[in-house]
Design a protein that fits this description.
This protein has eight helices and seven strands. By secondary structure, the chain is an alpha/beta fold. The chain has a single domain, classed as Rossmann fold. It has a seven-stranded mixed sheet. The longest helix has 21 residues. The structure holds S-adenosylmethionine.
Length: 248
């Protein structure tokens, strides 16, 4: 960490990924196009998989123009929106300018890989949909360390990330379909293990006609003081995950 608390970006692959993701207005047109698909995506798979989470303090990574945040703010006590690009946060601020609460929305522009403004063990639920799919594997690794730090014991994460790394290891997302990164489902499990998180379930699925391009991973930070409660929550989650798979 440097004196401002932000991480140094040692890897050139990570640096290149952040340069690509910071290209001016890279996502602007996409934000408008994507708005109409969130209703269906929220119905399936998002809501059935997150509905039992504790929404007291939610951290959303890469909110873009806020199509997910729109829904999360109806559930959360506090909603932290963290984006690398200021223009995305400006769109969120404009979108929610008349939001009267009770959810408190906080906006944070970050360095693209760390969360120095979020207190240790203060978050009950980490959420990211259709953003971390673009993050190069070392960038995801950096966020995983941060998720382990900021999650409360017993807290959960729902992260949509790339699995395209099983097809190509190229770290340049501009060479991949739908700007998918070289991240993989297996690597996500490894990152969880390295950071003391438990990945309870995952789903590899097609995106934009590319088989196995994406993955949803769900994970929990164990609670050493409430081992039985955390175990029971994982069992309940696994049961509802299986039920969801059978009924979709
Ligand atoms: C494709 S948009 C998705 C936005 C939103 N999740 C949605 O579903 O509409 C990707 C978002 O991730 C943000 N982003 C890209 N790289 C990032 C990084 N390393 N850290 C945080 N945000 C990042 C972009 O600024 C953009 O807002």
């Amino acid at each position: 960490m440097n004196p401002t608390g932000e991480k140094d970006l040692a890897g050139t692959a990570a640096r290149r990924n952040l340069e690509t993701c910071a290209k001016p207005e890279l996502w602007q047109d996409w934000f408008d196009e994507a708005e109409c698909s969130i209703e269906d995506q929220w119905k399936d798979p998002i809501w059935p998989l997150i509905r039992r989470m504790d929404f007291s303090t939610v951290l959303e990574v890469g909110p873009g123009a806020g199509r997910n945040s729109e829904r999360l703010k109806e559930l959360a006590g506090t909603l932290h929106l963290v984006d690398f690009n200021e223009y995305a946060l400006e769109l969120c601020k404009r979108r929610f300018q008349d939001h009267a609460g009770p959810c408190v929305i906080r906006y944070h522009q970050n360095d693209g890989c760390s969360l120095p403004f979020i207190d240790d063990e203060s978050v009950t639920f980490v959420y990211s949909w259709d953003s971390m799919v673009h993050f190069e594997r070392t960038v995801v690794g950096s966020y995983m360390q941060e998720f382990a730090r900021v999650l409360k014991p017993g807290g959960w994460g729902f992260v949509h990330h790339s699995n395209y790394g099983t097809i190509s290891e190229n770290s340049d997302i501009e060479q991949a379909p739908h700007l998918r990164s070289n991240m993989t489902s297996d690597l996500f499990r490894t990152f969880c293990e390295e950071n003391g998180l438990l990945r309870t379930s995952f789903l590899v699925f097609a995106w934009g006609g590319v088989e196995g391009a994406d993955c949803i991973s769900i994970f929990q930070k164990p609670d050493p003081d409430r081992k039985f409660a955390a175990w029971r929550a994982r069992m309940l989650h696994r049961l509802s995950w299986r039920f969801w798979l059978l009924t979709r």
